[in-house]
Design brief:
heterodimer, A: mainly alpha, ABC transporter involved in vitamin B12 uptake, BtuC, two-stranded antiparallel sheet, 15 helices, disordered N terminus, B: 298 residues, mainly alpha
């Protein structure tokens, strides 16, 4: 976690083009080209889940990559966001959906602050283990108290249609554009945040807590703020995951495996990097599809869903270890090296 | 509280303590590795699954009990050695969190490989101990749980003697105490780590057989790691005694809470109650019951 963000800023500025050109072109293609050329399979199976997972990874990266607090309960905050949005939407008459999303993020932030309280006294593994409490408690509460799912016996509820500023986002393309809009907005806000004093405080607390305290960073407040903002973003990602991708709200999808998946995205993509969240999510979403194609091509009928599931776990495990050993700074570092023509930094 | 209630309470308490011993069994594997290499080995649970699955699959293929046990143990040794060589050695001197994430990846790998090799169905595991209730002074106690507790006690005694009275044990303690000083006086760290991973593999085999006999050998076996983590938080990551005492406390508290509190909070609280106990305790004493290192300063 020692990869320094601050030192990578001048490196990026050394490129001949301004840093905002790449993202701007990407956004232009994402908004202006893909909606017209993509198939509904591309939107529903790849792009929408990719956007939701990217946002969740962005939230976790803020907490783990920038502020240095490892969390193993990310999926729990996604669940809080999804269920909060559902309940606000259901129980408050005429509430605009965009406000529901905001309130869902705030609910996740409140829960995040609560489960972040141990970070005031605990560090490292002890903290990581204590965030597991969030994972199990939230899933238990959402399953056991059926008020959250509006007394629905199956616990699986249909998500309402997506309406943002009076525009209904229906169909595969609509849901993709909805997710894209939310992700873009939150990402821009996060970028802005990282350039403020708060963002610098996060990094100071991560790199040397004692030193941060000495120069006057309010360490405890910074940690709780990191938990709050991270959980807010993760909660909004949960809304996207449930409303735009799955179109159902149910607690079982937000399990420990999901939490690990998001942590893996952050590791593979690159700790303390905004782009890393997107790179990692792209890999995690695409690689099972590639693996299943390659597997059934090579092994034929022997490669059934059980074998696929297991080989997915193995390949994922190998990928994690390989990245940690060979490129701890993740796909982002690989990408930068390729872009610069393989020259060492 | 009248006599029957007291008997019932004792029964719940003893049952809880004994299932706590089962948690400790898994936790000890963590402690061994954490003590000597500072790695929180999340893959311990998948090692438990791997060993149990290997053993039961061999037995089902008509391999005699002891041969299967030896083969399983040999495989675990091999696994431990390759983990040390292929995963830990390249990551030497990396921050502990990175090592932890590597063991997360490792646990995915081992789980996938174990089930790819041996299939995903549930296997029954017979160890030849009948799970009959034993009546002691009016309290019914599971014979199997007593057997498991005896095994755990024997293992802890063995490990303690080993750490206290052998040269290798002394080397382990030296490494745990100060890795750099141990290296400087010429201890061969890779060999010590390999030995420790072998020992952890052995502990995982024992835990795997006992848990497998209790629950059936299946994927959920690797989830007992989640039961062991609060035990470790409570007892301190680097104390074998802490793992035992933490296991007993968590086991007892969990059973008592499930029986006496469960009805008031719609039940099923065992998935998180252990964490709440551990956390509540940590807020008062951040280094755990017997933990050595202060947690607050890094």
């Amino acid at each position: 976690m020692s990869s320094s963000v601050l030192s990578s800023v001048p490196a990026a500025a050394r490129l001949s083009l301004p840093v905002w050109v790449g993202p701007l072109i990407t956004l232009g293609i994402a908004f202006g080209v893909i909606p017209f050329v993509g198939t509904s399979y591309l939107f529903d199976a790849i792009l929408t889940p990719f956007l939701a997972l990217s946002l969740a990874a962005l939230g976790l990266n803020l907490l783990t990559g920038y502020a240095g607090q490892l969390s193993l309960g990310t999926a729990a905050f996604m669940a809080v966001g999804a269920f909060a949005a559902y309940n606000f939407n259901l129980r408050v008459e005429g509430l605009p959906f965009v406000i529901s999303i905001g309130l869902a993020g705030l609910s996740a932030a409140v829960v995040g602050i609560f489960f972040g309280l141990p970070s005031l006294r605990l560090k490292g593994f002890y903290l990581a283990v204590s965030t597991l409490a969030a994972q199990f408690f939230v899933q238990w509460a959402l399953t056991k108290f059926d008020w959250f799912s509006n007394h629905n016996p199956s616990g699986v509820i249909d998500a309402p249609p997506l309406v943002l500023f009076g525009i209904t986002f229906g169909g595969a393309v609509g849901r993709y554009l909805f997710a894209l809009t939310v992700v873009t907005a939150v990402t821009l806000l996060t970028l802005r945040l990282l350039n403020t004093q708060t963002g610098h405080n996060f990094i100071a607390v991560r790199d040397h807590e004692l030193a941060a305290r000495v120069i006057g960073v309010p360490v405890l407040r910074t940690k709780l703020l990191a938990f709050a903002i991270s959980s807010f973003i993760v909660g909004v990602a949960g809304v996207l995951w449930a409303f735009a991708y799955l179109r159902t709200v149910e607690p079982h999808g937000f399990n420990l495996d999901r939490s690990f998946q998001i942590l893996f995205i952050v590791i593979i993509g690159g700790l303390a990097s905004i782009r890393g969240a997107f790179f990692g999510a792209a890999l995690i979403v695409v690689f099972p599809l590639v693996l299943s194609r390659v597997g059934s091509f090579l092994l034929g009928s022997y490669f059934d869903s059980g074998v696929l599931d297991m080989s997915q776990r193995i390949v994922l495990g190998v990928l994690i270890i390989a990245f940690l050993i060979l490129e701890p700074r993740g796909l982002v570092a690989l990408w930068d090296r390729v872009v610069r023509g393989g020259k060492a930094r | 509280m009248d006599h029957t209630e007291l008997l019932f309470f004792t029964e719940v308490l003893v049952g809880g303590l004994l299932s706590g011993v089962m948690y400790s069994l898994v936790a000890i594997g963590f402690v061994l590795i954490y003590k000597t290499s500072g790695v929180l080995n999340f893959a311990q649970g998948s090692m438990v699954l791997f060993s149990a699955l290997t053993f039961v699959s061999l037995v089902e293929r008509a391999v005699p009990f002891w041969v299967a046990l030896l083969a399983t143990f040999a495989l675990m040794v091999l696994l431990g050695l390759s983990i040390e060589r292929l995963v830990l050695r390249p990551l030497v001197n990396k921050p502990p969190i990175i090592l932890f994430m590597a063991t997360l990846g490792l646990s995915y790998m081992i789980e996938g490989a174990a089930q790819l090799a041996w299939g995903t169905q549930v296997h029954a595991l017979e160890l030849g101990i009948e799970d009959l209730p034993l009546e002691i002074a009016g309290v019914f106690i599971s014979k199997f749980d007593l057997f498991a507790a005896a095994i755990a006690a024997a293992m802890v005694t063995g490990l303690t003697l080993f750490f206290q009275y052998t040269r290798v044990g002394l080397a382990f303690r030296a490494v745990a105490d100060d890795t750099f000083a141990a290296y400087a006086v010429g201890l061969r760290l890779p060999r010590i780590w390999a030995t420790v991973w072998t020992a952890a593999g052995f502990v995982a085999t024992v835990a795997g057989l006992l848990w497998g006999a209790r629950l059936g050998v299946q994927f959920s076996l690797s989830l007992i790691v989640l039961k062991a983590l609060p035990v470790l938080v409570l007892g301190g990551f680097d104390s074998i005694l802490g793992a035992i005492v933490g296991g007993l406390i968590i086991g007892a508290a969990e059973k008592l809470a499930e029986v006496y509190l469960g009805p008031y909070v719609v039940g099923g609280i065992e998935s998180w109650f252990a964490y709440v106990i551990a956390l509540g305790f940590l807020l008062i004493r951040p280094s755990g019951l017997f933990g050595q290192k202060p947690v607050e300063r890094a």
